[in-house]
Amino acid sequence: MSTRTSKAPKANGRIDVLDPQDGSLVESIPRYDAKGMQSAIDQADAALPRARRMPVHERMRVLYDAADYVDRHRGEFAETLSREGVKTINEARAEVARTVMTLRLSAEETRRIVGNTIAFDQRPGSENRFGYSRRIPVGLIGAITPFNDPLNLVAHKVGPAIAGGNAVIVKPHEATPLSAIKLLEAFHAAGVEEGIFQVIPGYGADAGDALVVDERVRMISFTGGRETGEKIMQRAGLKKFGMELGSNSPTIVMNDADLEQAIPAIIGGAVAAAGQNCLHVQRLLLHESIYETARDQFVESMGRIRYGDKYSEDMDMGPMIDPQAAERVDNSVQKALRDGARLLTGGQRQGNFYAPTVLEAVPDNHPMVKEEIFGPVTSLHAFRDEDEAIAIANNVDYGLHAGVFTSDVDAAFRVADALECGGVMINDSSDYRLDAAPFGGVKGSGIGREGVGYVLNEMTEPKVYCFNIRFPKGWT
Fold it and tell me: Which residues of the chain form CATH 3.40.605.10?
């Protein structure tokens, strides 16, 4: 349940959470429709004054205590995350550790919500005016989260929301709601007041839509697909948005790159979360002078990736989220092959598992090159020089992260400046992310930035206070 009192929203049915690995039932939980979401919004709206009045030290305490709770129960969190989702148990443990850091970062950033004094006397006639700005909460925040990072991405929305003095409602992905519910348990244990943070599992067409369109919701923080993000913006009306809408990330390997460093890093970025990752290395751009050598090393390494039982300590990669996702990836690969691409490794589907796959000679304007695959598939492309590499990398309507491998610092600066994206990882794959850094993209990859301190700025607004001071006669 999302709340603990008799005033809790009423469920309308059940959601069966299935293990993507074998389709077995993990847990059956209450499902909330539009009416249930409206009830949750009522609660959050009533809780807003209490959220605003929470002093900074109390917000910090709640966030630190929630982080400590997750840390103490990290084994339970990792098991839940892996069971309901696509990550191996080792990937799940890493996400839990990041979640602890995200919550602690949120606590630390709370003390840094600061304003500025304003020199009103810069304007003639305003010599008696003095004032300042302070940052105030946005209000009620609606957070809609995806299945691929079902714990840390929730923390990235909830932590800054609480830090900023807001109320927040999370509508988690219907396939992976259990991690969000466990995070709510951590905040309950930390003593967060009723209604300030709620988790409302449901489907986008009813619960999600009700959250988006309600005028009392002043900001929507969404991570997911571009098509859904555009629909949300059309439906939501006048409110703030934070949108991370995926990518088609390139990683460029220059002719002077250290392949012993580059290949393992790129492999990790290609298969993390079975490629169901917005920072997934989808396009690998190799200088023509090293193309064959780098290609052969990459293909050999991809062929050694161990995929299967995600609970095994020895496994590198788990399943796709559901049969439809696995079928969609397979259809994309098969279409590329029919259209002239060459399969270098992989290309097989076994139930919800899809083999790590490498393609070359994919046509330049093919959907495999232009759109987001969201699966463990990487296409290879040769380039002659920096200008061509930049042109290939930028030739998509996405721009989240890119990777560049080179030993030439001048080239690194030139290429990084020219790439149209929100972040460039030098001598790392596009998959690297620091939770404290600004995270977001350009073009079709979204609007705004996450990263705890940066999204906290988005979840607060500046308010100006100006005093027209009346001085007594003769005062100097």
Answer: 14-246+441-464
**DSSP-derived secondary structure for 343-380:** EEE---EETTEE--EEEES--TTSHHHHS---SSEEEE
The one catalytic residue in 109, 174, 278, 372 is 278
Residue type, 347: G
Q: Does the predicted model carry a pTM greater than 0.85?
A: yes
Structure-block tokens of residue 174: 């219907």
The number of beta carbons lying within 10 Å of the beta carbon of residue 122 is: 8
Task: Decide if 247 contacts 441 (C-beta within 8 A).
Answer: yes
Alpha-carbon distance of 76 to 86, in angstroms, equals: 16
In which element (H, E) is residue 426 found? strand 423-426
d(CA 55, CA 53): 6
Which sign does the torsion angle of CA 305, 155, 452, 210 carry? positive
- Using CA atoms of 282, 285, 290, 295 in order, give the dihedral in degrees to the nearest 10: 20
User: Among this protein's residues, is 278 annotated catalytic?
Assistant: yes
Where is 120: in which H helix or E strand? none
Q: In what order do the strands lie in the sheet with 423-426?
A: 342-345, 357-360, 377-383, 281-287, 249-253, 401-405, 423-426
For 363-382, the pLDDT digits (tens) are 999 999 999 999 999 999 99
Nearest residue to 449 (alpha-carbon basis) of 182, 225, 243: 243
27 is catalytic: no
* Beta-carbon count within 10 A of 93 CB: 18
Indicate which residue of 95, 109, 244, 458 is catalytic: 244
Indicate the SS3 state at residue 258.
coil
Q: Mean pLDDT score of the chain, rounded to an integer?
A: 96
Q: Characterize the bridge pairing of strands 217-223 and 240-244.
A: parallel
24-73 confidence digits (pLDDT tens): 999 999 999 999 999 999 999 999 999 999 999 999 999 999 999 999 99
Superfamily (CATH) of domain 14-246+441-464: Aldehyde Dehydrogenase; Chain A, domain 1 (3.40.605.10)
Which CATH architecture group holds 249-426? 3-Layer(aba) Sandwich (3.40)
The contacts of residue 52 (CB under 8 Å, 6+ apart) are 136, 137, 165
CATH 3.40.309.10 residue ranges of the chain are 249-426
- Total Cβ atoms within 10 A of residue 350: 11
